[in-house]
């Protein structure tokens, strides 16, 4: 059974239809990639799931409908979104940012264990615990945003463009962690413009075009698909 | 000269009250970027409720401190209800409206609250019952030494305790960190599982509780209450918050204390500086006035309300972000 399922999801921004009936699913334990060009509706899809964009159609998580629920309620049901642009709290310290990730949890001992784990994934954060997040580099902020999301111990982690604006070396570091976290069993839906990277780590993928799913299948199939190669992988057909 | 020390004492007392009220403005501004112009009215209501409760209990033979405490508790409860109601009815529906809309609503609300108070407590000045016997302590041995009263000491101590408690709440507790997170980025705060509406309501509740206590302190200090008292007090505390840097808690405290000192110094010295005979030595045209009434001054202590606004104008012209404020434009 799928952990997350979207059926015919539509989102309107004013008069613009940003999503025109998107259907997809994410099964427990999977890492699913969502790729597509700028403005295809990738971020909007994540925002609809997290409750930040008003959607119609069907969005179900673990059997429960998410439509119309407030973002904080959706977060408490086990979905964590690492938003585009990272969204760290610039004036809170790194430590306080991490604490906010665990805001909805009461199990102190387990939080402390997860915090240690996050700091072992991102040793850079451990060196900067008392710094305000605004003083971190872009890559460190991305690490903090992912670490903070992991501290909520999510059942589904939504990642929006984790590679955006980062130096290649840092992108590798971030994707290494994504792979590792996925191997630890965290279900993920990954939005990426860098389709090569995304299809390397994902098991399945959807291609969004103008607010609709145009192609879907296993990551290996998509890597071999001539249309995907031409449009998103920079390979001439 | 003991006028100076006396005005420092008076200024710090007044400043402590301004600081507590300014905290209410700055907390709300910090979290919703809105000037809650009805906050001065919350302070007035706090003063009025405490007055009613104290008068009702005055003849019951209870210890005066207990009566005062009950009055303050009642004021806190009523003001928290008013503060919550303000947020729920007037501001929450306008959360995403253009910024001018909640500002105008705030002013309208302040007028509504004033007139509700007028209906309940009438239009005349009310003598706040002096159930605590005022004792004066000399700061020095001379006859002319400055004095400090037990009420002033109580105001300064209570303010300091409340400010310390507030800072501890905002910087040490999970609720406080959630407030700061919400103030920086409400959308992302929601993604953390923080109930943004609830956090904003909590901020209004805390601000209103501080305002209630400030109202009781003002009543006890000046000994009078009036349904329009919140207007000027609110504007001065707002000016203090802007002076310190609106949105900044430490700034509100600093701004409040400075505002109190400026007002007290102005009230204490303006008469001396504008004495017609002093002016006669500096400027032409005052000789006749000096001869006919050597003690007259152009401006007296009743101009004390002017200083807050002079300060506000100077701050807005020369340092709009305030003394400690640098929160503008650093949102992640």
Characterization of this structure:
The complex is a heterodimer of chains A (237) and B (332). Chain A is built from ten helices and ten strands. Chain A has helices spanning 42-50, 71-76, 94-101, 108-121, 123-127, 138-150, 168-183, 195-201, 219-224, 226-232, and strands at residues 2-13, 16-27, 31-36, 55-61, 64-65, 79-82, 156-160, 187-192, 204-209, 212-218. In chain A, the strands form two sheets. A six-stranded mixed sheet of chain A has the order 6-7-8-3-9-10, sandwiched between helices. Chain A has a four-stranded antiparallel sheet with strand order 2-1-4-5. The longest helix of chain A has 16 residues, at 168-183. Chain A is α/β, with parallel strands linked by helices and 237 residues long. Chain B has one domain: ABC transporter involved in vitamin B12 uptake, BtuC, CATH 1.10.3470. Chain B has helices at 2-32, 39-58, 64-91, 100-121, 150-172, 174-184, 186-191, 196-222, 229-244, 249-273, 276-282, 287-292, 304-318; strands at residues 126-127, 136-138, 147-149, 224-225. In chain B, the strands form two sheets. A two-stranded antiparallel sheet of chain B has the order 1-4. In chain B, strands 2-3 form a two-stranded antiparallel ribbon. Chain B is built from 13 helices and four strands. Chain B starts with a helix and ends in a 14-residue tail after the last helix. In chain B, α1 (2-32) runs parallel beside α5 and α5 packs across α6 (174-184). Chain B is mainly α. The longest helix of chain B is centred in the N-terminal third of the chain and has 31 residues, at 2-32. Helix content of chain B is 71%, strand content 3%. The model of chain B is unreliable at 328-332 (pLDDT under 50). The A-B interface holds A 50-52, 70-72, 75-76, 80-81, 83, 85-92, 96, 99-101, 103-104, 133-134, 141, 148, 152 and B 174, 177-178, 180-181, 184-185, 187-196, 327, 330-332.
């Amino acid at each position: 059974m799928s952990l997350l399922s979207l059926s015919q999801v539509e989102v309107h921004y004013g008069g613009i239809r940003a999503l025109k009936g998107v259907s997809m699913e994410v099964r427990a334990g999977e890492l699913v990639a969502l790729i597509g060009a700028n403005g295809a509706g990738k971020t909007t899809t994540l925002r609809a799931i997290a409750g930040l964009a008003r959607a119609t159609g069907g969005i179900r998580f673990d059997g429960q409908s998410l439509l119309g629920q407030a973002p904080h309620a959706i977060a408490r049901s086990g979905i964590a979104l690492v938003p585009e642009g990272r969204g760290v709290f610039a004036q809170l310290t790194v430590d306080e940012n991490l604490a906010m990730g665990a805001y909805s949890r009461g199990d102190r001992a387990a939080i402390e264990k997860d915090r240690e784990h996050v700091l072992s994934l991102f040793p850079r954060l451990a060196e900067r615990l008392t710094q305000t997040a605004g003083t971190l580099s872009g890559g460190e902020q991305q690490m903090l945003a992912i670490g903070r999301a992991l501290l909520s111990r999510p059942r589904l982690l939504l990642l929006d463009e984790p590679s955006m604006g980062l130096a290649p070396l840092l992108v590798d570091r971030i994707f290494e962690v994504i792979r590792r976290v996925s191997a630890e069993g965290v279900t993920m839906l990954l939005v990426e413009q860098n389709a090569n990277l995304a299809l390397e780590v994902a098991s399945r993928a959807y291609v969004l075009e103008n607010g609709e799913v145009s192609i879907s299948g296993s990551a290996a199939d998509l890597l071999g698909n001539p249309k995907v190669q031409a449009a998103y992988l920079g390979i001439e057909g | 000269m003991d006028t100076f020390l006396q005005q420092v004492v008076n200024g710090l007392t007044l400043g402590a009250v301004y600081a507590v009220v300014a905290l209410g403005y700055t907390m709300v501004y910090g979290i919703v970027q809105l000037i809650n112009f009805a906050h001065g009215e919350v302070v007035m209501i706090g003063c009025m409720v405490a007055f009613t409760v104290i008068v009702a209990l005055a003849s019951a033979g209870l210890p005066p401190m207990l009566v005062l405490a009950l009055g303050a508790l009642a004021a806190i409860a009523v003001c928290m209800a008013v503060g919550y109601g303000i947020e729920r009815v007037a501001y929450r529906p306008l959360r995403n409206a253009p910024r001018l809309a909640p500002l105008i609503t705030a002013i309208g609300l302040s007028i509504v609250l004033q007139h509700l108070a007028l209906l309940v407590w009438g239009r005349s000045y009310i003598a706040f019952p002096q159930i605590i016997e005022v004792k004066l302590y000399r700061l020095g041995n001379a006859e002319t030494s400055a004095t400090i009263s037990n009420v002033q000491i109580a105001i300064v101590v209570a303010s300091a305790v409340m400010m310390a408690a507030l800072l501890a709440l905002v910087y040490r507790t999970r609720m406080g960190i959630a407030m700061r997170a919400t103030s920086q980025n409400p959308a992302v705060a929601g993604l953390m599982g923080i109930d943004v509406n609830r956090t904003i309501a909590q901020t209004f509740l805390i601000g209103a509780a501080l305002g209630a206590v400030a109202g009781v302190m003002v009543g006890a200090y000046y000994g009078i209450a009036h349904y329009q008292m919140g207007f000027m007090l609110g504007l001065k505390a707002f000016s203090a918050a802007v002076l310190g840097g609106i949105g900044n808690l430490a700034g509100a405290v600093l701004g409040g204390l400075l505002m109190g000192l400026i007002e007290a110094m102005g009230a204490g010295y303006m008469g001396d500086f504008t004495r017609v005979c002093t002016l006669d030595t500096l400027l032409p045209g005052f000789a006749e006035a000096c001869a006919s009434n050597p003690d007259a001054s152009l401006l007296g202590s009743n101009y004390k309300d002017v200083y807050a606004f002079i300060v506000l104008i100077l701050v807005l012209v020369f340092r709009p972000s305030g003394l400690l404020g640098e929160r503008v434009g650093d949102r992640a």
